[in-house]
């Protein structure tokens, strides 16, 4: 008869091996699913979102998707997807290269870090994170544009662009999170190059 600690260790090992088996079954399709999600969000962001205006704000679907993915899969996936998504948006819109990819990388990384300490089943963390990240990203983007010589009133930027966009993105966060989680396969977390 095994001692209680040995039984507990065997149970943990059994659970870990089952989790590893399910991750390895999914791992071959997971990068393809992420790539399709990136392409879909970039297409929506560059073709449809510019024509959707609510209270003077345009939704940032791509950033919402990056943050939701980061919250499900961790900071490494979030930063990587943020960089690729931002780069594709810069290319598609003929913007100054690197600005969107840098900002999306920051949003993805810190969203993933924040998600490590919250309840993954709750709807509130994605909404709060998208709202907060939108404010930070929009302010950093405005500062970058100012440094590049684009002048605008600070009050106008905060009240007519930053705040309405943050509210609109926050409203989009819950449905995007649910759809992304369903598409990517639940709550399992992955490292970028090796499964965790």
Indicate the topology.
Layout: H1 4-27, H2 30-48, H3 61-73, H4 75-93, H5 99-115, H6 124-147, H7 154-184
Helix pairs in contact: 2-3, 2-4, 3-4, 3-5, 3-6, 3-7, 4-5, 5-6, 6-7
Radius of gyration, in Å, reads 19 Å
Q: What is the H/E order?
A: HHHHHHH
Based on the coordinates given, report the CATH architecture.
Orthogonal Bundle
Distance linking N and C termini: 32 Å
Strand-residue proportion? under 5%
Query: Total helix count?
Result: 7
Question: Can you walk me through this structure?
Answer:
75% of the residues lie in helices and 0% in strands. The chain is globular and about 45 Å long. It starts with a helix and ends in a 12-residue tail after the last helix. Residues 12-24 and 187-196 have low confidence and may be disordered. It has one domain (29-184): Arp2/3 complex 21 kDa subunit ARPC3 (Orthogonal Bundle). The chain has helices at 4-27, 30-48, 61-73, 75-93, 99-115, 124-147, 154-184. It has 196 residues and is an all-alpha fold.
């Amino acid at each position: 008869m095994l001692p209680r600690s040995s039984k507990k260790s065997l149970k943990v090992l059994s659970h870990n091996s089952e989790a590893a088996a399910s991750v390895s079954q999914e791992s071959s399709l997971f990068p393809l699913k992420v790539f399709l999600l990136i392409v879909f969000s970039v297409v929506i962001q560059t073709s449809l979102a510019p024509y959707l205006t609510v209270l003077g704000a345009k939704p940032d679907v791509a950033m919402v998707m990056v943050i939701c993915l980061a919250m499900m899969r961790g900071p490494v996936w979030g930063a990587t997807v943020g960089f690729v998504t931002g780069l594709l948006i810069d290319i598609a819109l003929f913007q100054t290269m690197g600005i969107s990819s840098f900002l999306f990388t920051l949003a993805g990384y810190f969203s993933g870090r924040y998600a490590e300490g919250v309840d993954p089943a709750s709807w509130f963390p994605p909404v709060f994170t998208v709202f907060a990240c939108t404010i930070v990203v929009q302010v950093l983007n405005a500062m970058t544009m100012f440094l590049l010589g684009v002048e605008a009133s600070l009050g106008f930027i905060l009240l007519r662009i930053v705040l309405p966009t943050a509210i609109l993105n926050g409203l989009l966060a819950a449905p995007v999170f649910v759809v992304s989680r369903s598409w990517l396969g639940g709550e399992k977390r992955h490292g970028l190059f090796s499964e965790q």
